[in-house]
Amino acid sequence: MLREQQTVVGSLSIDSPSRFEGRRELALSFLPEHWGHGYAREAVSALIDWALIAIPNDTPTVIAATQVANHRSRRLLEAVGMKEIDRFEKWGAAQIMYSTDPDRPCDRTAGAGNSSSRP
After folding, report:
1. Domain for residue 111, yes or no?
2. b/e burial code for range 50-82 (CB count within 10 A of at least 16 → b)
3. CA-to-CA distance for 25 and 18, rounded, in angstroms?
4. The domain containing residue 70 runs over which residues?
5. C-alpha distances in Å from residue 45, one per residue of 10, 38, 109
6. Among 31, 73, 103, 114, which residue carries the largest CB count within 10 Å?
7. What distances in angstroms separate CA 80 from CA 42, 45, 46, 92, one per listed residue?
8. Is residue 110 one of the residues assigned to a domain?
């Protein structure tokens, strides 16, 4: 939400346990008119940091899955420091799964200033 304008720009959630082996799973959706402003990167980074501390789990990571064809979402997940860990077919399309590095916190500065990374 943009506080100044009280405008919703998208939604984020952490599902724990998720459909993928009970791990914490990030889900996100941002409205196209708000892409390219850095809102998603800021929100995703903050939510990952929070989830790693606040949501008990046996696995010290957060995962996210997106379609291979969704290049904007993939760039966003990579920009916050997530790494590809798997590819699979689901919902009639090729999917890619990303994970945070269990030994390194979310990278809030990766790609900073580059507003072309859009969800």
Report:
1. no
2. ebbeeeebeeebbbbbbeeeeebbbbbbbbbbb
3. 6
4. 10-99
5. 15, 11, 9
6. 73
7. 9, 6, 10, 27
8. no
| Residue 36, domain CATH | 3.40.630.30
Share of the chain above pLDDT 90, in %: 49
Lowest mean pLDDT among 11-25, 32-46, 66-80: 11-25
User: How many domains does one find in the chain?
Assistant: 1
Instruction: Establish if 107 belongs to a structural domain.
Output: no
Confidence grade of residue 66 (pLDDT, cut at 50, 70, 90): very high
Residue 119 is assigned to a structural domain of this protein: no
